[in-house]
Amino acid sequence: TDALNVLLIIVDDLRPSLGCYGDKLVKSPNIDQLASHSLLFQNAFAQQAVCAPSRVSFLTGRRPDTTRLYDFGSYWRVHAGNFSTLPQHFKENGYVTMSVGKVFHPGISSNHSDDSPYSWSLPPYHPSSEKYENTKTCRGQDGELHANLICPVDMADVPEGTLPDKQSTEEAICLLEKMKTSASPFFLAVGYHKPHIPFRYPKEFQKLYPLENITLAPDPEVPDSLPAVAYNPWMDIRQREDVQALNISVPYGPIPVDFQRKIRQSYFASVSYLDTQVGHLLSALDDLQLANNTIIAFTSDHGWALGEHGEWAKYSNFDVTTRVPLMFYVPGRTTSFPEAGKMLFPYLDPFDSASQSMEPGMQTTDLVELVSLFPTLASLAGLPILPPCPVPSFHVELCREGENLLKHFGSHDLEEDPELRG
Amino acid sequence: NPRELVAYSQYPRPADTPQWNSDNPSLKDIKVMGYSIRTIDYRYTVWVGFDPHEFLANFSDIHAGELYFVDSDPLQDHNIYNYSQHGEIPPSLMP
Questions:
Q1: Residue A51 bears catalytic tag
Q2: CA-CA distances (angstroms) from residue A213 to A20, A206, A265?
Q3: How confident is the model over A100-133, as pLDDT tens digits?
Q4: Is A105 an active-site residue?
Q5: Of the listed A37, A89, A105, A193, which one is catalytic?
Q6: For the packed helices A373-380 and A51-60, what is the interaxial angle rounded to 10 degrees?
């Protein structure tokens, strides 16, 4: 009868380059372990492949044409409508809601406040080392510091001796420890920055991906039949010093093939670094005996092109930029409760080759959308169900433009959920 | 029926050809919007005129189109939208 807690993990610019999505190269044992106890959606798509519009869309449960946010320059409550958010819905139903790291996109699109106080019970946490992310902290071959795209770092060398995602994991674990003794259920959203550019990660992760094992994208040329309007000229990575030094022609490049492989190597290394952060977070949840009464949702805001169609970054309608990982762990529903004393999420070291193979959990190939995250999480937690939005819905504070995905979690929910019985 | 499930995506552009702000146009500079419909069989996209002041897409003002069949072209490298407009889809790219 106790309300289930919710841990929402949002990873910036993560495409489904993960073992649990069939990627043979990437080492992501902790995320794969989560998937083995979850319902995994093989075909989940973002509504727009760029940070703020995608995040505001899935956190309000509305499409970009309703939030009217296609760039970074407006706050939906002022610009489109006073739409309730996913955390706000939990907060208004008795949950302590907390934000760590990059959940809303910072700046105008979340009112320079991560949509506080509407969405959060506590002031949102942002890691102090984030301010160095785009500064000259990458040691080049010349021994000097640069603001590069590819930025494997020596932890002893970086300002504050830490990285944003490490700080976010520490803060999230701190909050879990505090909530362990709280009478109220919690909704904790943790937003990890990697693998968003720059690829700034502890340099040892590069060893997981020897350059000789890194191939080019299977289709690295710009297709002849691609309309010019559909092509994204990846202007953001061109601003980085190491890419600038290559003098790549605008708009079609190409990037020299050896550098293409280095970009892919560092994206994968960033994913494995991120996987360790998720692993530490989940094993702490388990150690605190919270895994049996906490729903875990794992997703990203959009994908990232790694050279496919001669493109890099997001900013397009291709599958590689809109398809995202999406999985839900629901205690006792997507996996049976573990025996007493047994852990569901022990930390797995990506450097330990034994921790690679993992039994897959529940999966579905049905097509779903990120805009369905809000109604689905609310239903899984037993909160009041969101009604479908009318068209238009600018005047409606709480409704859903996506589907409620509860039907994918097994038939016995049909009886419990009148909306789905029909 | 899984075939009836649809995912919608969209992306804005400031012009029909790539330019410095193509990746991230500000609202006032958006002139074209690419709307995609995805099913497990295909991805269909139309790039249409867009009015950023009225937030209106003009679906009779089609700047370009994309059509890819998942089975025959999973990497989406062979856009057959133009063929499809004239009903001449190459057999090799038929689903």
A1: yes
A2: 20, 12, 9
A3: 999 999 999 999 999 999 999 999 999 999 999 9
A4: yes
A5: A105
A6: 40
